[in-house]
Amino acid sequence: MACAFRRSIACQLSRILALPPESLIKSISAVPVSKKEEVADFQLSVDSLLEDNNHQSKLDTQDHARRLAEKLKCDTVVTAISAGPGTLNFKINRELLTKAVLQQVIEDGSKYGLKSELFSGLPQKKIVVEFSSPNVAKKFHVGHLRSTIIGNFIANLKGALGHQVTRINYIGDWGMQFGLLGTGFQLFGYEEKLQSNPLQHLFDVYVQVNKEATDDKNIAKLAHEFFHRLELGDMQALSLWQRFRDLSIEEYIQIYKRLGIYFDEYSGESFYREKSQDVLKLLDSKGLLQKTITGNVVVDLSGTGDLSSVCTVMRSDGTSLYATRDLAAAIDRMDKYNFDSMIYVADKGQKRHFQQVFQILKIMGYEWAERCQHVPFGIVKGMKTRRGDVTFLEDVLNEVQSRMLQNMASIKTTKKMENPQETAERVGLAALIIQDFRGLLLSDYQFSWDRVFQSRGDTGVFLQYTHARLCSLEETFGCGYLNDVNVACLQEPQSVSILQHLLRFDEVLYKSSQDLQPKHIVSYLLTLSHLAAMAHKTLQVKDSPADVAGARLHLFKAVRSVLANGMKLLGIIPVCRM
């Protein structure tokens, strides 16, 4: 694979530059394929070798590249070395490249790219990922979809790299909204409706009580009293709250099942209602609490003592807040998991909240607060169903499935399958995930149903279609050809482009592992699918001589394997028929 080739190039460079090969390996990168021209296989930026490149002109850099190229010699691995604009370019022995890449893809299977030298020396860490975090007694809002799929991707990637990952769903199951909901249910709730469609009824009650509370101050007062009773442990209030929580989690588990996502721990703010009192006592003992004129209790984060920046940790009536419970949760998780890193996946509107939580933990003397990280993301605009504004994820999933079933029914090449509903849902989910992951996570984006379901172009449907098509190829011709490959049969430009692209997979995984952005993997898989589609037209398996057919089948099998690996990391279940 790329590792052996990078090391071979690095060893030759190290002799000339008097540098250890290890220091050069990460600077040698596989060259992205080009539609316009044949490209080298590996490239080294000369700038990365120059200690002080601020004063180097382009001519100096090019001259340095040219002189280096003259000193380097071709060997059994590298067949051509040239100087480009500030780069050194290396072409690998074509038959060696073909044999090494195909062999590595098949041998490593799901670990292809993850065993790379780029990840060598990577310490195995204990990582906690908190994601999804819907609010109890509200149907699963579509706004929670991004946190859910992004958190799942991060957990998948960290797990694939060998880290010990704990997936936590920290449910919003405590707070003033339960004062409103409890009061609302006592005023407007119906037992029959709660039993037949629990979360829809609770949502309707919540909307109604909010509306009434804006006009009737007495309702707002009753809500405060209900939540205060909850905090004091009133059995009647707790019993109603527990019922709302149990009904909600039952429905969430069904949604996660449809998404193909699991959690190691279902936690919630309610777990920390008592421990948050311990946090307040600890803050008080360190002299960090101050009372404002309104009676709220705050921690001063200004650094100057002028209260220009504060975080409220207790209301004037003694009830806790989200921040207090998050502090208690972080301390508890450190005790429980002794994590090396804790990642919170939440929208960018929570940025200030997490900054304050991490800052308070540091002020309290917890040095591990630096191991906590917030991964923010933007909002999705314009996600509507045929019925209008979307509020609930279930509506989106149902619409995804029905639209995909219609699309599949209208395509003549659609194969007969045992469970078309399941296939439609998996393809539809791939469409949603790819549209979401194509750009920077921090960016807001405009949702488009039409773009999501295009079977051509850069979509999840296209990825699934490519995977299914390659599965069909293997089914049709079997695996008898795969025992012995004549690599001389894979020297056409289309074959070489695919092999060069497969060579880059470890670099793409490394990049995503560094910045936790799925877009690198998405872009890579879309390019791989386009290359496979072009090759499928020109590199015929049927009616070709046995050694040619076998070599091509081996190449397509390698493409399908890497495509499936990448899709699974993104949280997509590949389909074999559609």
TrEMBL record:
* The keyword Lyase is assigned to this record: no
Enumerate the Pfam families for this protein: DALR_1 (PF05746), tRNA-synt_1d (PF00750)
Places the protein is found: Mitochondrion membrane
E.C. number, please?
6.1.1.19
Q: Which SUPFAM superfamilies match?
A: Anticodon-binding domain of a subclass of class I aminoacyl-tRNA synthetases, Arginyl-tRNA synthetase (ArgRS), N-terminal 'additional' domain, Nucleotidylyl transferase
Gene3D superfamilies from the UniProt entry: Arginyl tRNA synthetase N-terminal domain (3.30.1360.70), HUPs (3.40.50.620), Isoleucyl-tRNA Synthetase, Domain 1 (1.10.730.10)
Q: Which reaction does it catalyse?
A: tRNA(Arg) + L-arginine + ATP = L-arginyl-tRNA(Arg) + AMP + diphosphate
Write the record's keywords in alphabetical order, separated by commas. Acetylation, Aminoacyl-tRNA synthetase, ATP-binding, Ligase, Membrane, Mitochondrion, Nucleotide-binding, Protein biosynthesis, Transit peptide
Domain DALR anticodon binding spans what residues? 463-578
| Family annotation (InterPro entries) | aa-tRNA-synth_I_CS, Arg-tRNA-ligase, Arg-tRNA-synth_N_sf, ArgRS_core, DALR_anticod-bd, Rossmann-like_a/b/a_fold, tRNAsynth_Ia_anticodon-bd
Q: Name the Gene Ontology molecular function terms of this record.
A: arginine-tRNA ligase activity; ATP binding
Q: By its UniProt entry, which SMART domains does this protein fall under?
A: DALR_1
Q: What is its main location?
A: mitochondrion
Q: What does this protein do?
A: Catalyzes the attachment of arginine to tRNA(Arg) in a two-step reaction: arginine is first activated by ATP to form Arg-AMP and then transferred to the acceptor end of tRNA(Arg).
Identify this protein by name: Probable arginine--tRNA ligase, mitochondrial
What is the originating organism of this protein?
Answer: Peromyscus maniculatus bairdii
The lineage, from the top, is: Eukaryota, Metazoa, Chordata, Craniata, Vertebrata
Encoding gene (name): Rars2
